[in-house]
Q: What sequence folds into this?
């Protein structure tokens, strides 16, 4: 108890609180601009944290990332352009609600779900960090292969009513993910002699291109005026939110649990957690046909999962020094610089600093409520700007954000090319979400499969020999076979029904 009180004293210092508020505003700005992701916000904060003591340095990163993850919902809901990769899973759903004049509700639900999910993740981080880290460490390449397959399978639930087109879109994303150096043989693939492509296709330019540039092209080439969002002014953002959260309270809990568990798996993070939560929401919904038409249920799941995943990613980072995602990979470097070598001993040598991080998670998520509300109110100005003025501005931000990733024009070219590909796909009825998911999980799928095959000497039975891998494998294969089994059952039952 003394350690917790000492940690609270460190966090509620006026200087630390000022850092938290300023980094919160910075995170909201970074997340709301397409291309300026939460990872980039963390990277830009690192030089500043060199001049800070450990507590405010870590507090700045925690707060900025929590704010940025939510802020990615703003352009996603208002303009159909996700501000961060974690928002991409439900951008279509959120924008469909906005087109119906429900922008207040979708953003209010998104903010409330993010706060609740973030607090849930903070509780789990504070009380069960060592346990979750031990579970995550039991995952080998076999488990990661099945986890990637399970995530890719969710594309079938996320895509439209035409699963074949969803599968083709998924394969396009997997194809893009294979560009670069073969991780096993070390040979370049699909690089066409380009040195830049040897490093693969960066996810951020791809996401910006397939969502933002495609939307700009659609606006430019529209022969008739695009439907305008009816809600040009926001009143009470929280009107109706209580009823929605009460109705979908189990979704809120499920999304928070999935986000925390997936976030605790090294390399997974909030992005994959959001996709899985949205897919699970649609799978178990009583009204799955409403998904994609502007239905709030999936947003409750994925919105809570996003911020809950943040707490989960810090579990392996703090306890074992294994990054849960790209953000905590940067955090581990900051911890070493500050003399806080991550690992079990840090809980014994500097417990007050670790608990100060836990307290910061609670403060940051509670602060997200007022700051997020202010961001939503100010974002309404986006709806009043004519699209022929707004789209060039968005394109400019996309180019700047893409260029800033590696300071190269090549990324801008990738963004433009994939934007054109996405535009052609959508014009022909192919959904973009599965392609993005294939691009995200393609590397993990290939690496884990090749590593597992080398370990097992080509024996496929080894994928089911480990207990956790066996459970994940059986569940995944069962999902794959379920449509065939259901179709056979319908065919077998149809003659009896006709009698």
A:
């Amino acid at each position: 108890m003394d350690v917790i009180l000492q940690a609270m004293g460190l966090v509620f210092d006026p200087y630390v609180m000022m850092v938290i508020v300023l980094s919160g505003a910075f995170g909201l700005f970074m997340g709301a601009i397409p291309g300026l992701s939460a990872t980039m916000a963390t990277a830009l904060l690192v030089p500043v944290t060199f001049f800070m003591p450990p507590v405010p340095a870590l507090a700045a990163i925690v707060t900025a990332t929590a704010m940025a993850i939510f802020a990615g919902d703003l352009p996603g809901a208002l303009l159909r352009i996700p501000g961060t990769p974690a928002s991409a899973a439900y951008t279509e759903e959120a924008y469909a609600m906005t087109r119906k004049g429900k922008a207040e509700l979708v953003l209010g639900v998104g903010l409330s779900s993010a706060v609740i999910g973030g607090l849930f993740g903070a509780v789990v981080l504070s009380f069960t960090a060592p346990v979750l880290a031990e579970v995550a460490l039991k995952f080998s390449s076999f488990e990661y292969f099945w986890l990637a397959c399970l995530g890719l399978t969710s594309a079938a639930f996320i895509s439209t009513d035409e699963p074949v087109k969803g599968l083709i879109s998924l394969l396009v994303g997997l194809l893009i993910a294979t560009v670069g150096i073969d991780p096993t043989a070390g040979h370049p693939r699909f690089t066409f002699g380009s040195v830049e492509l040897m490093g693969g296709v960066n996810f951020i330019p791809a996401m910006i291109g397939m969502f933002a540039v495609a939307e700009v092209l659609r606006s430019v080439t529209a022969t008739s005026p695009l439907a305008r969002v009816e809600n040009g002014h926001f009143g009470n953002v929280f009107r109706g939110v209580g009823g929605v959260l009460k109705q979908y309270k189990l979704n809120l809990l499920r999304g928070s649990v999935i986000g925390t568990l997936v976030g605790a798996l090294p390399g997974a993070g909030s992005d994959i957690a959001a996709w899985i939560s949205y897919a699970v929401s649609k799978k178990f919904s009583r009204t799955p046909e409403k998904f994609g038409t502007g239905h709030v249920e999936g947003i409750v799941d994925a919105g809570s999962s996003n911020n809950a995943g943040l707490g989960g990613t810090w579990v392996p980072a703090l306890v074992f020094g294994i990054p849960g995602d790209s953000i905590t990979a940067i955090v581990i470097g900051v911890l070493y610089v500050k003399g806080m070598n991550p690992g079990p001993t840090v809980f014994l040598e500097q417990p007050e600093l670790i608990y100060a991080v836990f307290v910061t998670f609670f403060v940051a998520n509670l602060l997200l409520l007022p700051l997020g509300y202010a961001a939503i109110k100010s974002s309404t100005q986006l709806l009043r700007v004519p699209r022929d003025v707004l789209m060039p501005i968005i394109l400019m931000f996309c180019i700047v954000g893409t260029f800033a990733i590696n300071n190269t024009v090549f990324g801008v070219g990738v963004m433009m090319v994939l934007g054109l590909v996405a535009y052609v796909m959508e014009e022909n009825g192919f959904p973009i979400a599965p392609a993005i998911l294939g691009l995200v999980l393609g590397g993990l799928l290939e690496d884990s499969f090749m590593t597992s095959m080398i370990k097992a000497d080509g024996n496929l039975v080894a994928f089911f020999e480990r207990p956790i891998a066996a459970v994940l494998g059986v569940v995944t294969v069962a999902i794959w076979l379920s449509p065939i089994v259901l179709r056979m059952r319908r065919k077998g039952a149809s003659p009896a029904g006709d009698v």
